[in-house]
Amino acid sequence: MPTSREAAQQLRAADLRVTRQRVAVLDAVATYPHTDAETIFGAVRIALPGVSRHTVYDILSALTSRGILRRIEPSGSSARYERRVDNHHHLVCRSCGVIADVNHATGEAPCLTGYDGAGFAIDETEVVFWGLCAACSPSEASRPQP
Question: Which residues pair with 36 in a beta bridge?
Answer without folding.
Answer: 80
